[in-house]
Amino acid sequence: MSARVRAAGRRHLARHPRLAALVDRLTPRSVRARTTLAACLSVAVVLAVASAAVVLLLRANLVRTVETGAHEQAQAVARLAGEGRLTNPLPLDHGTDFIQVVDADGHVVAASQNLAGHPAIAPGNRRAGHDTFDLGALGDQHHQRVTTLTADTPTGPVTVHVGASLRTADTAEDLATAALAALSGLLLLTVGALTWRATGRALRPVEAIRAEVAAIGDRDLDRRVPGPRSDDEIARLADTMNAMLERLEAAGARQRRFIADASHELRSPLAVLRTQLEVALTHPDPEVRNDLVSGALQDTERLQALATDLLLLARLDATGHDWPHEPVDLADLVRSTVAARGSEPHPVTVHASTPVTVHGNPLWLGRLLTNLLDNGQRHARHHVTVRLHVDGATGHALLDVSNDGPPIEPADREKIFERFTRLDDARSRDDGGTGLGLPIARDIAAVHGGTLTVLDTPGTATFRTRIPLPARRSAFSTGGHRT
Fold first, then answer.
1. Which run of H or E residues covers position 349?
2. pLDDT in tens, 400-444
3. Bridge-partner residues for 389, per DSSP?
4. Looking at residue 92, what DSSP letter applies?
């Protein structure tokens, strides 16, 4: 119902642009103003309900007291009338304004002193829920609570009217209303001031965080937002912002380091290539020129391979959570990739008899396996082993590529996955390595929701790739994140 009311209100405002503009101007824009307004409105509603209840209870109690006194007076007069002992004039008790006894014919039988010699009174208009009687004989007109009783007398039935003034109740009601209104206004001002001040103090760290973040540029990622000393949501927000800035700073440092490394990797073969071409251009011996051109062609191929790796890294970085979903049989991919490589420089033994299907990009998964095989054959002494099996407990396909070369030290097991890192720099350059093979393999595994790590296996170097199976993959894609 409230949603329909809000929708109707929006349609009404859309039909009246001036009203919409006025509402927009009057609507508080800051959190501080909205919070203060909401607090004041809430307290105002509570105070209005509570004040109305207090005033109503006070008046009901005073009126009940007046009615009780008038009723007792009327009963006393009725007993006197029943016993035939009415006196004229009738005495007034404390709290009653008049007494009048009227017979069945409407004649006054007895009355209080202030109504002596006057005709029977008749009710006039009703105002504020009370009977109003014309007391012109008293020269006044006020609210009365009149109690009427009928009594049997020796001369016939009579009606007894006893009136009690509500002037005290009216005065008490007016005073209570005025006092509650003043106290409510003072309380509203206090609540508004306290809420405005407390909200301002609570939001001051948020404004400081916002100002600092706005001042941070792409060259000052080492700056951090100020964090309050309290242990609350704002402190956790500051910690989260600082952690994000640390990640951005680290990412910027990695990007600058990557650019510097890529520039260095490109500069060296380019310098060699230029030297070879310059010498070939001026050397008179054709055989020497052919050797130089052949070397330049090798360096060109190296540059082409490096550019291809850099483009692939850029694609992998841009892929993010755009998961490839093509079914791929890892067992068939392993067998075909190994068969296409041959047995040089070291033979590769494959243990992948059972089909294992995952969702992914077959070209990228083939590149992952190729990079691991290149690394394994580069460092193996005699042979390389590839094992493919399924971990039923976790729902992952496990691809292990092992070589019998020197094991990787624990301190280097993460370092080798950094871009342009070579543990044996000279040999890697001689073999054509760029230091990007293993980082590319890990990024491909991460894009497929998996991981690539080095196992602690004695006497060998084993790289384990974990890729989620289709059922596990769907859950990962829904709630997981890239490792």
1. strand 348-351
2. 999 988 888 888 888 888 877 766 543 444 454 567 888 888 988
3. 398
4. P
